[in-house]
Amino acid sequence: MPTMMRDAAISFPLLGDWSIDPSASFTLFGHTFYWYGAIIAVGFILAMLYCARHCRRCGIKPDTLYDFLIWMIPLAIIGARLYYVIFQWSDYREHPLNAFKIWEGGLAIYGGVIAGILTGIIWCRKRKIPFGAIMDKSYMLNVIDLLRKSEQGRSYKLYAIVAPSISSQFNYARLGQVISGLKALGFHTVVEAALGADMVAEAESRELAEKGFLTSSCCPAFVTYIRQSFPQLLPMVSHNLSPMAAIARFIKETTPDAKTIFIGPCTAKKAEAQLDTVKPYIDAVLTFEELQALFDSRDLDITTLPEDVLDNASYFGRIFARSGGLSDAVAEGLKEQNIDFDLKPCVCDGIEACRMALLKKSKNALDANFIEGMACLGGCIGGAGCLTHGEKNKAEVDKYGREAYEKTIADATSVLK
Fold first, then answer.
1. How far from the centroid of its chain's Cα atoms is residue 375's Cα?
2. Of 305, 337, 328, whose CA–CA distance to 402 is shortest?
3. How far apart are CA 300 and CA 184, in angstroms?
4. How far apart, in whole angstroms, are the C-alpha atoms of residue 299 and residue 305?
5. Over 50: is that where the pLDDT of 394 sits?
């Protein structure tokens, strides 16, 4: 029976002619095991443990993850075997039952990955979990290409739109040095997404007063969850763009040929950027982890850079990053615009809290007129693309908000008028 990768030597091209040629297999309890299979198994176990430790960032309980793995593991093995048999069918044509003899070898990793992804999509739909909150597609090559072609701003201006949760990231350096680092990479200007949050707070408070009930539209995973699981509530979702899209639209409308890249903690923002209503305004999305990778790829030690300034938004725009911040901003928007409306917010911290609030609203049992939905625990500061996580994040965001030069939403948005 043909097998793959059993006798390949391991070489290190950058270290000269050095290579190692380990034994292809080892024996344990009278059974032969191949090293490549053992290494894949260990990698899978480590990945599973990592996911179990960090899945709460996406608002997913470890028990829910284990339920998924019970389905995914056997189906992925079946997919890996099926892929191998299909492309090696000449070996099984005369004895098709040999296809079930998996112990004789013959698994293709591509089939396992395909089966795993399909299982994840179907399982998430059945469990009503937003698939975009747990999947990530990198746009780093797109960003590198945009940086290169901008020629340091000579061809077009490249804007970095940074999420307010940046204040609790890169804790080994000062925020001003991170801004300088972004400009050293080739960004022309760094703008706060929190300024877009100020714009949204103003508009959303007016929309809430007009309609009497509203759910937020800032968290793309939350909106997707409503669309998939509570479609009857879609008319109640705010019609405003998210802060990311709102400020990007302003930049595109006021700066010819500008390109915009959003940088934040949210992997679901990558799916939002592909929506027809958002795609014209956002050219790419990076997570904070990917931004750190860009710094590393350039050997850029941001701690050696001078501090630049980032001061576009108000306190209320900046606290959008943590759970409860959006509701506080909407309350401030109502107050500043002298709108007489009795706000009764329901702050949903994590996808399970969102599910309960939406379920109550669908049965007319919710004592609230505004649902703030955040799929990640803690809000955006709990996003899967963060560098740091912990209770200090909320305090850092509030501290960052208090440092804002603009003290009211109206002060912040006045520069746009």
1. 11
2. 328
3. 8
4. 13
5. yes
Please tell me the distance from the alpha carbon of residue 413 to that of residue 416, in angstroms, as a whole number. Answer: 5
Q: What is the pLDDT of residue 364?
A: 93
**E strands, 151-272, in order:** 158-162, 189-192, 214-215, 259-264
Task: Indicate the pTM of the whole model.
Answer: 0.72
Structure tokens at 221: 């995973």
Residue 362: C-alpha distances to residues 126, 131, 180, 356 (Å): 19, 22, 48, 10
Find, among 319, 320, 372, the residue nearest to 344 by Cα.
372
Where b means 16+ CB within 10 Å and e means fewer, 302-327 reads beebeebebebbbbbbbbbbbbbbbb
Report the mean per-residue pLDDT for the chain.
Answer: 85
Pairing state between β 10-11 and 19-20: antiparallel
Which of helix, strand or coil describes residue 327? helix
- Strand, coil or helix: 286: strand
Report the run of H or E that residue 349 belongs to, with start and end.
Answer: strand 345-349
**Burial group, residue 175, by CB count within 10 angstroms (0-12, 13-18, 19+):** buried
DSSP label of 415: G
pLDDT exceeds 80 at position 10: no
The tally of CA atoms less than 13 A away on the side-chain side of residue 36 is 15
What is the residue type of 310?
A: L
Band of pLDDT at residue 278, cut at 50, 70 and 90: very high
What phi-psi label fits residue 257: left (phi over 0), alpha (psi between -120 and 50 degrees) or beta? left
Residue 70 CA to residue 67 CA, distance in Å, equals 5
Structure-token match 């899209």, residue found: 245
Structure-block tokens of residue 317 = 């725009």
- Torsion from C-alpha of 180, 186, 188, 194, nearest 10 degrees: -60
Q: In which residue are the tokens 């960032």 written?
A: 57
**pLDDT digit string (tens) for 99-135?**
888 777 788 888 888 998 888 888 777 776 656 555 5
Both tokens of residue 390? 């912990």
By C-alpha distance, which of 161, 170, 167, 220 is closest to 195? 161
Give every CB contact of residue 288 below 8 A, 6+ residues apart in sequence. 165, 166, 169, 170, 263, 264, 265, 385, 386, 387
Q: What is the DSSP letter of 61?
A: -
Query: Among residues 167, 360, 186, which one has the least CA distance to residue 265?
Result: 167
3-state DSSP assignment of residue 189: strand
Between CA 391 and CA 57 the distance in angstroms is 13
